[in-house]
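Ticket #4471: structure output looks truncated?

Reporter: J.K.
Steps to reproduce: submitted the chain below (146 residues) through the standard prediction queue, then opened the result file.
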Amino acid sequence: MMKPDWQAEVVLEIPFHDVDMMEVAWHGHYVKYFEIARCALLDKLDYNYRQMKASGYAWPVIDLHVRYARPAYFGAAIRVLAEIAEYENRLKINYTIFDQASGARLTKGHTCQVAVDIASREMCFASPQVLYDRLGVEVDAEMGGE
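Returned output as attached by the reporter:
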């Protein structure tokens, strides 16, 4: 069940220092564009990295996938959409990058993050209650977060 507040968009301009000699954005920078959109989404939920740490959990990225369809060029405006796809046992965020002018899809991908209890350094096999609270999700007692 995807809620409208479980997504965020940012518009970025491809800077010169992100491109190669053909003026195409280097493939590694797309991860940075994902991160900028992810932070906008987490800010919207009031559960970005500082709030995560304060709640006693770190959320490292354990998986990253990127599928490049079309290149982004120097000076182009891109729109990066981040949306929560899963939250029960991991936090999976899907990303889509569009060319702002044409609306064409350039890239898509996802990241998966897991909760790690900072005090014990143990990975949690279910998402902690704080994530459910930030998402506004009721937790079934049998399925519940930690």
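Triage note (M.O.): checked the attachment and the full token line is present. Residues 132 and 139 are 7 Å apart (CA to CA).
Status: closed, working as intended.
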